[in-house]
Write a structure and sequence with these properties.
mainly beta; Neuraminidase; 2 domains; 4-stranded antiparallel beta sheet; 2 helices
Length: 357
């Protein structure tokens, strides 16, 4: 009888040891498999967005360019010649949009300063676009074409101003006879560099205009009085051309509409909320970025609309935003974010296939 108890105790101890070893194995190997059988079918939570974005720089003034190579900073003029000591903007005031060209110059639309700032980090130069002219009154958006001509949306004149690659004013887009504008409230511009098409978003007319490289109208998307059907808009705010598609932030309908570059409706992505100051960007992987100036964050979505991550304070260094608005993804895949209330621009390196990887 005693030997049976001892044997039982020995067997029980052996079972406990095997169970303990099995538990340790499961804890070490994770909840994925055991002997080829799935133990847990729920999806793994996405890793923090910091595994995908890393801060490159934050800039807000000429000093952020010149400190890299102080010997080269004898001029504040990015185009040519010496700086004008009278015409000077010391820092970003209320930036709204950012864009780059093929030479890696960074252009920042600043309606508060009535200026477009030009930052050239490669050559350690800073300047103002058209600093001797009186054409820019409230520049709110901009984009560059394949020849590095810069297109600037100016809400003061309600037109698009075109400057060549050396900063010389060339022409207006949307100017009618008598000086009137074709647009009502232009808010954004995008350029298809392959086809040479220009896309202008007109918020109050609830439309997107497609034009050729000379500014001649090709097609209008949307309708007067707004609408919520496919291809109709309600206060559209931003647009982006990427991967052969046109993305339009349809703010009043709380969605993103996607078209081909000829204007054919493809799909819609429903959002939970959209701030009227929201920015829009699309990276090389097709991931979509929507800024929220009210919540001080950026939502990241897959091309099919699946939410991937949220970029905000604590998620990634440099995302302590205050009123993030305009965004831009350059040819190298860097994400530029206008941090409007902090009067600065933050630049992030994008890596990985999607923000959850």
């Amino acid at each position: 009888m005693e030997s049976n108890r001892v044997g039982s105790v020995t067997v029980c101890a052996s079972i406990r040891r095997r169970a303990s070893l099995l538990l340790v194995f499961c804890l070490v190997s994770g909840p994925h498999t055991l002997g080829g059988q799935a133990l847990e079918t729920s999806a793994r939570p996405a890793q923090p967005a910091s595994t995908r974005l890393s801060l490159v720089r934050v800039f807000s003034s000429p000093d952020d360019v010149r400190h890299l190579h102080p010997i080269l900073n004898r001029t504040l003029d990015i185009i040519a010649g010496a700086a004008d000591p009278v015409t000077r903007v010391d820092a970003l005031k209320s930036p709204s949009a950012v864009a780059t060209d093929s030479t890696h110059r960074v252009f920042v639309a600043d309606p508060g300063a009535q200026a477009v700032h030009v930052f050239d980090f490669i050559h350690s130069k800073y300047g103002l676009l058209d600093k001797d002219g009186e054409r820019l009154h409230a520049p709110v958006a901009l984009s560059a074409d394949g020849q590095d001509n810069l297109y600037v949306v100016d809400q003061g004149s309600r037109m698009v101003l075109v400057y060549d690659s050396v900063g010389k004013f060339r022409r207006y887009v949307g100017k009618l006879r008598g000086g009137e504008s074709y647009f009502d409230t232009p808010t954004a511009i995008a350029i298809d560099k392959t086809a040479g098409r220009i896309y202008v978003c007109d918020r109050q007319r609830h439309m997107v205009f497609i034009m050729d490289h000379e500014g001649r109208l090709i097609r209008k998307l949307g309708k007067r009085g707004a609408g919520d059907g496919p291809g109709e808009f309600r206060f559209p705010g931003q647009l982006v051309v990427s991967g052969g598609e046109l993305f339009v932030l349809d703010s009043g309908n709380v969605r993103i509409q996607v078209f081909d570059t000829a204007g054919k409706f493809l799909r819609a992505i429903k959002l939970t909320q959209v701030d009227q100051r929201a920015g829009l960007a699309v990276d090389k992987q097709g991931n979509i970025y929507v800024s929220d100036a009210g919540l001080n964050q950026i939502q990241v979505f897959r091309s099919d609309g699946q939410a991937l991550s949220t970029l905000d304070e604590g998620a990634v260094e440099g995302t302590d935003f205050s009123g993030p608005s305009g965004m831009w993804v350059d040819a190298d895949g860097a994400l530029y974010v206008v941090d409007s209330q902090n009067s600065r621009v933050a630049v992030f390196h994008i890596s990985g296939e999607n923000p959850a990887d």
